[in-house]
Write a structure and sequence with these properties.
The structure is a single chain. This protein is α+β, with helices and mostly antiparallel strands. It folds into two domains: 58 residues; 182 residues, no CATH class. Helices cover 37% and strands 17% of the residues. The chain has eleven helices and twelve strands. A four-stranded mixed sheet has the order 4-5-7-6. A three-stranded antiparallel sheet has the order 1-3-2.
Length: 252
Amino acid sequence: MKYIEGLHGLKIFHKKNVVALIKDENAAKEILRRYKKQGLISHVRRDLYVATDLASKLSIASKFEIASHITPSSYLSYHAALEYHGIAHQVFFELYVSSKELFNNFDYDGISYTFCKSQTEIGIVNPLTDSLIRVTDLERTVLDCINRIDLSGGLEELIECFALITYINENMLLSYLHHFDKQFLYQKTGFILGYFQKEMKLSDTFFATCKSKIGKSTRYLTDTHESDTYFKEWRLCAPRNILSFLEQGETP
């Protein structure tokens, strides 16, 4: 039992961490086997483990901490990041986890962990109050979700989430947009965030910059059936009033 305190301090760990603690690989394997059998630790996947509460036998690591340790580069993204930042309208039982290293999707303790290919390392943070978590910051999260509306829970969920944001750093948004360098992303970002300009405290200059980058192509925000209205300002086809997804009484 002398290693339990050390494993509880780690909270979530790989087999290599236990080998480093015990200094003997065979002994580490035996400890893991024994502790797992006794319910002192729980096996998440492959060589990933979590310490458990000694009374309840439940994991002491949160789903966000687990997601952040699947691979060396994994981090919460898309709707999982919205949820972590406290602006998700619905809590899903699927977490989107981005990573440079491929991992197979898996379920643990009622949560599905789904792989997404990491596109860039910018905007990934370790929150000061949650050192075991890696997550996209709010600005990167917003742009990622606009870029992949399907991974944000769909347009209705996206609008519900964005309605909860009271401030966003437009300089960071523009920096990330410049990094991604996608005309369609400028187009969608300007269009969607235009509905929340006052709430998010975005300047007219921000939207003028987005507008200057959209090119001449007309695109669809969602599928051709749902996006039935043309918005000339953004050269974009979209649902007639995306704010209609908000609760009754909201006005454009």
